[in-house]
Amino acid sequence: MSLKIDQDHSRFRAIVRGRIRENLRKYISKGELMGKKGNDVVSIPIPQIDIPRFQYGEKQQGGVGQGDGDPGDPLSGQQQGDGTGKAGSDAGEHVLEVDVTLEELAEILGEELSLPKLEDKGKSSVVATKDRYVGVRRHGPNSLRHFRRTFRRAMLRQISMGTYDPGNPIVIPVRDDMRFRSWKTETEPVANAVILYLMDVSGSMGDEQKEIVRIESFWIDTWLRSQYKGIQSRYIIHDAVAREVDRDTFFRTRESGGTMISSAYKLAAQVIETDYAFDEWNVYPFHFSDGDNWSVDDTLLCIEILKKQILPRCNMFAYGQVESPYGSGQFIKDLREHLGSDDRVVASEIRDKDAIVESIRDFLGKGK
What we know:
Elements: H1 2-30, E1 36-37, E2 41-47, E3 95-101, H2 102-113, E4 127-137, H3 147-161, E5 180-189, E6 193-200, H4 207-227, E7 232-238, E8 242-245, H5 247-252, H6 261-275, E9 282-289, H7 296-310, E10 317-322, H8 331-339, E11 345-350, H9 356-364
Parallel strand pairs: 6-7, 6-9, 9-10, 10-11
Antiparallel strand pairs: 1-2, 2-3, 4-5, 7-8
Helix pairs in contact: 2-4, 4-9, 6-7
């Protein structure tokens, strides 16, 4: 019976996985994730799946439909409507919410977009050591002496020798009674990759543009976390000046001010140089903007910062240009003109939410 249940559950999960993959592009472009549960699971709406349910036989006694009553009597605990609503001809929409781990979600994303595994540049050797107690032994330092085990061993010895007096229960351990905790030193990986999210919050970046950034950042984050055992995320917003913020502020900041992209690149370069050694970290900066910059001189300064400070220290630099009715869209053209031949630079144009899928493929499809 247990094996049969496991088989049914596996089959049901396979069906769910297939439906998620069929509708993945819709989930990505529309942001149809019904809410995160903890850090590892999301609830996803899966339409048109029949939920397994019990069906009772004719011999079932008691319950609804049994006992005294006349036809038409309301069921206990049920409320009747007022009957004023209009009849409809459409079928009701029944949506099943299924919990899916982020690991499964990343795997489905990789399959659907044919994403290659990322090339770890040999920086995943960052480890931390941790001592874990695994048992008890007869020798060790007094600082690791296991009092309860030592006391019990001494009591058993005195009882077996007949020297234990219940009326005067004094237990004196000797050297052979001593027991000590034993430990094992384990190494575990710590965060070996960092994602730097940079976003333009100037006056030309509206709510729709920021929603595109939010959706795309979620899927990028999901994929990269499936590739590395540990990862950190840092957030930088900028208009004419740049500052580092937390995730909530990153997505909720209201747009205002002009645009000076170099301010964000200067801060990103400083963060990378200060906190993330080149030989220990995989660094992924993602910059989102509408492509409007203050001046040609500032754009040239951005190119210089990228060439000399950011690109030599990162696996890939990704620039996503979100279309805005108020932005000039010039920056991606300048980026391609000056750095188009550098395969570490990936630039993607994101016209609207429907373009998010291909933009993710642009960024992650090279496996860097």
